[in-house]
Design goal:
184 residues, eight-stranded mixed beta sheet, globular, alpha+beta
Amino acid sequence: MIIDGVEMRALEPGDAAGLADVLTRNRAFMAPFDPYRSEAFYTEAGQLARIETALAERDEGRTLPYVFVEAATGAPVGALNLGAIVLGPLCSGRIGYWVDQAWNGRGLATAGVEEVCRLAREEVGLHRVEAGTLVDNLASQRVLAKAGFEQYGLARRYLHINGAWRDHLLFQRLLHEDPPPLTA
């Protein structure tokens, strides 16, 4: 998928340095929405460790990690992850995403969320995808609404963000009504 000169593709170890750079540049911008991050998080080694964990979880069928990169340069400008994948009678996963401040407002997150929902349905067989946003994160709520999500609840003191336990609005998108695939 390419939109506005940005491609969404599978995350790979070679993205570590670029992710460390874009996360460092966006540290203040994302602080109101992010949990505490150690200094190691903002290093190439820290990002490589996160990528290796994500790829191991992908191989186990528990997550699908993606990165948004400038098509011309390959530089990361955001990421999207479908994690907490559970099959069987639940057939669900949780989506999270972020986009470099300089690339906000161009539809990247919405297009990425829509594409991951398509993959979740067609390739993984999920029934639903969930997401959560801080109550005041209106931009992320607009992304989810545009991608067909509906709000279904409020989780009080859900995540420790920016120094305090913060309430989150909960959203879901139902992908189909088919029964779950039979498992042995």
